């Protein structure tokens, strides 16, 4: 027996002669007097039972004086058992008090070993839950995702977000703007025109309204052109010397194959378009500005304005340096791949697998007119496509985040010695001339899956929200498709001021966009990894199998090209074609004789194919990608106005 709180030697001796435990001789004093006069002592003892020893806890009361307590059963015969139940009291739980009424001054309240185990488990569980809650709260505080007890959202903690209640005079009667759009690139300008046509009052804030000069965003797939028609913006590819694109030509080791878009079921005007990115954007900006309820303004947005966890608008700096605040019930951030506002609205997991080196070739013709050209070079692909009637864009992919220096001539030397020998002969001379001209541009190729934090009053779109490798030219198709989805969701709503209900309703946007977005994103990431050269024999076989599979024609070429073009955005079809390529590669290895070495390479080929596509699918979200109808947000109804 272990005594946790010692007591007097006299009492100790008495406790041995009149053991207070049940079944032992002792007396039962009045519980009321016990509570007033007893000094608690905690004991631990091993029960003398035949079963394995069990530890029990005992709460022992030591009485300070033999005359201080009055027995409750003076007239009861010796040895008669008295049992009383005490409920409530000064302790944290009620206990059953048992004893023998022989005048003993000591009593014990035994807490059963099962109860003690329960208490111990409760305490340990409380500690674990407390630690986990603190960890979860800390993570939410870092990303500004927490919710308040009343059902609202906690204050968003981010250096890109600031309170909107710092003495600022708010417009009376509510904001004069329905939607604030940050950025007027492809997504921002198209969205401004679309919402403006729906009658929304739109304020667009763009850092630089002059014509941009970029080396990406120059190829619009046929699926994207169909979305452009759906938005009423198809005339924006007119009068900018845009070129029709009818498919791709694939080159590898002196061989080539042509892959045409499956456009037989569409109007003759439907095709891909390639152009100068800046000219296309300016056309959309001009068209949006013609609407009286759309206001374009040049300025730099410095922060989002937050009030009680709800985004109320933005703070921006004008060309003259004046700090101004613009309020609206809905703020849509479309400020591109270098967005500095997305950190408070999503979990940015940006990957930079490579960089593009851009050149403009002049006075030459492509081997296959009106086609994009993909050269499976070493170490990674080279792209050629027309951007005007006299110019051809060349994009050289350089793996990794760093490229050779332009200033000291390392990049020009790399292009001439490592890349030029792999360029088709028809383009070789123009390629060298473009290098000597010196107008070389570079751009990091970024990939970022969509991982939004649903935030009342705010939404992310475009490259600020979701990026994929630009090898397949699918970025603008995804952005325009997202705008169509958002337009249809907002169409039945006239009032956007109930931010909490609107946020919950717009969670369906993240699911409804998945078929198109996830198909193009997954295909871009997977194709880039397959098209890159590798010393691994299994990867070499996969690359060769992909080229040969696409060269077969029929469904083996039209199926993948329909996926790439955005005409058939079905994730399951993508997975089937991808593994069909892998199985085709294994079949090539096993013919004419399946040697052990070839079997091993074939197994590694299947394993490598799985290692390429499954991580991309996981990042996109398996459930939303393949089973969107099982996501509750898929069925969200518009909030009642």
UniProtKB/TrEMBL annotation:
Its EC number is 1.14.14.17. Pathway: Terpene metabolism; lanosterol biosynthesis; lanosterol from farnesyl diphosphate: step 2/3. It is a multi-pass membrane protein. It comes from Rhododendron simsii (Sims's rhododendron). It catalyses: squalene + reduced [NADPH--hemoprotein reductase] + O2 = (S)-2,3-epoxysqualene + oxidized [NADPH--hemoprotein reductase] + H2O + H(+). SUPFAM superfamilies: FAD/NAD(P)-binding domain. Pfam families: NAD_binding_8 (PF13450), SE (PF08491). One of its GO terms (molecular function) is flavin adenine dinucleotide binding. Residues 1-33, 67-98 are annotated as: Disordered. Component of the triterpene saponins (e.g. ginsenosides or panaxosides) and phytosterols biosynthetic pathways. Catalyzes the first oxygenation step in sterol biosynthesis and is suggested to be one of the rate-limiting enzymes in this pathway. Transmembrane segments: none annotated. Keywords: FAD, Flavoprotein, Membrane, Oxidoreductase, Transmembrane, Transmembrane helix. It is an enzyme of class 1 (oxidoreductase). Its main location: membrane. Its cofactor is FAD. One of its GO terms (biological process) is response to hormone. This is squalene monooxygenase. Belongs to the squalene monooxygenase family. It comes from the Eukaryota. Residues 328-600 form the Squalene epoxidase domain. Signal peptide: none annotated. It is found in: Membrane. One of its GO terms (cellular component) is endoplasmic reticulum. InterPro entries: FAD/NAD-bd_sf, Squalene_epoxidase, Squalene_monox.
């Amino acid at each position: 027996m272990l005594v946790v709180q010692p007591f007097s030697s006299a009492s100790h001796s008495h406790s041995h002669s009149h053991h207070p435990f049940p079944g032992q001789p002792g007396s039962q004093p009045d519980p009321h007097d016990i509570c007033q006069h007893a000094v608690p002592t905690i004991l631990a003892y091993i029960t003398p039972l035949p079963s394995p020893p069990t530890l029990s806890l005992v709460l022992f009361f030591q009485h300070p004086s033999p005359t201080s307590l009055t027995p409750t059963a003076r007239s009861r015969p010796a040895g008669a058992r008295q049992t009383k139940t005490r409920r409530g009291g000064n302790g944290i739980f009620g206990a059953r008090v048992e004893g023998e009424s022989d005048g003993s001054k000591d009593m014990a309240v035994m807490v059963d070993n099962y109860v003690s185990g329960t208490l111990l488990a409760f305490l340990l569980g409380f500690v674990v839950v407390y630690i986990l809650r603190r960890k979860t709260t800390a993570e939410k505080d870092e990303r500004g995702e927490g919710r308040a007890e009343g059902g609202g959202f906690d204050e968003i903690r981010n250096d890109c977000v600031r309170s909107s209640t710092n003495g600022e005079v708010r417009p009376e009667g509510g904001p004069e703007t329905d939607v604030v759009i940050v950025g007027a690139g492809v997504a921002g300008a198209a969205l401004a025109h679309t919402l403006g046509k729906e009658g929304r009052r739109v304020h667009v804030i763009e850092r630089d309204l002059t014509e941009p000069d970029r080396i990406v965003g120059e190829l619009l797939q046929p699926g994207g052109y169909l979305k452009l028609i759906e938005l009423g913006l198809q005339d924006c590819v007119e009068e900018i010397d845009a070129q029709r694109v009818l498919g791709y030509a694939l080159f590898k080791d002196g061989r080539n194959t042509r892959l045409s878009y499956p456009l037989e079921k569409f109007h003759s005007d439907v095709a891909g378009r390639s152009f100068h990115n800046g000219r296309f954007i300016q056309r959309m900006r001009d068209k949006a500005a013609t609407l009286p309820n759309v206001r374009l303004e040049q300025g730099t947005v410095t922060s989002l304005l937050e009030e009680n966890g709800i985004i109320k608008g933005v703070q921006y700096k004008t060309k003259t340096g004046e700090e101004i605040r613009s309020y609206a019930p809905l703020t849509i951030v479309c400020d591109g791949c270098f967005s500095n506002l997305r950190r408070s609205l999503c979990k940015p997991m940006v990957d930079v697998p490579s960089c593009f080196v851009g050149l403009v070739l002049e006075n030459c013709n492509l081997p296959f007119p009106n086609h994009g050209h993909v050269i499976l070079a070493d170490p990674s692909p080279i792209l050629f496509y027309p951007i005007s009637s006299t110019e051809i864009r060349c994009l050289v992919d350089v793996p990794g985040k760093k490229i050779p220096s332009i200033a000291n001539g390392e990049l020009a030397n790399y292009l001439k010695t490592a890349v030029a020998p792999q360029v088709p002969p028809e383009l070789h001379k123009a390629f060298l001339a473009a290098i000597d001209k010196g107008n070389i541009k570079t751009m990091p190729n970024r990939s970022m899956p969509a991982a939004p934090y649903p935030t009342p009053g705010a939404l992310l779109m475009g490259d600020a929200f979701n990026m994929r490798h630009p090898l397949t030219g699918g970025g603008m198709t995804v952005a325009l498709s997202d705008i169509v989805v958002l337009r249809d969701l907002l169409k039945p709503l006239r009032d956007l001021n109930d931010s909490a209900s609107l946020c919950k309703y717009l969670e369906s946007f993240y699911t409804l966009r998945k078929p198109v977005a996830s198909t193009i994103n997954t295909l871009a990431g997977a194709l880039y990894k397959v098209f890159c050269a590798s010393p691994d024999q299994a990867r070499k076989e996969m690359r060769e199998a992909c080229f040969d599979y696409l060269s077969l024609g029929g469904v083996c070429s039209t199926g993948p090209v329909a996926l790439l073009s955005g005409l058939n955005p079905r994730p399951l079809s993508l997975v089937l074609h991808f593994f069909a390529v892998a199985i085709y590669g294994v079949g090539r290895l096993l013919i004419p004789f399946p040697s052990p070495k070839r079997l091993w390479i074939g197994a590694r080929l299947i394993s490598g194919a799985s290692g390429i596509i499954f991580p991309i699918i996981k990042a996109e979200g398996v459930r939303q990608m393949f089973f969107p109808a099982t996501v509750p947000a898929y069925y969200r109804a518009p909030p009642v106005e």
